[in-house]
Amino acid sequence: MFSLRGKHFATLYKRVSMCHKFVASSQSHRCTLHTDKGQQHQPPDDDLAKPVQYSNTEANDWRAYDTFLAEENARPKYQFLILTASWVVFLIYFLILREENDIDEHLSTSLYDHLPGLEAQQLEIAIGEKEERGEDTTALVARLKAVQSVDSGQSSE
């Protein structure tokens, strides 16, 4: 599955990751690893030819969710304070300081004012449904007559 070259790279990468410095020795043309204590270690050639057992590596202990979950300490301590202050400023502006404009006044009017005849249609539908169920429709009929008289008064103007 993996080439011999890949196995060499995996072994070498594992050893390099444990060291702070990776220096190529110019005299022997071999890789020399320097550890923190200043000791030099030359990897034997036969070690590079052996396969790396996955169960003995650090990758065996790593889980996929560890890659995608943020650490507890990754969030700044002051993040809650900043978010809370932002929400407070937002609410103060939009609920207290902001004055109404013509768009707000337009939105506060009834939908029936914008669409003539809509209220009459909805009342007729509601009257039909209540009559099917056998319920009282006197209030709806009275409202329908009032709406129709207002609509006929507006259309004659």
Automatic annotation (TrEMBL):
Keywords: Membrane, Transmembrane, Transmembrane helix
Transmembrane segments: 78-97
Protein origin, superkingdom: Eukaryota
Pfam family, one: CCSMST1
PANTHER family: PROTEIN CCSMST1, UBIQUINOL-CYTOCHROME-C REDUCTASE COMPLEX ASSEMBLY FACTOR 4
Official protein name in the record: Uncharacterized protein
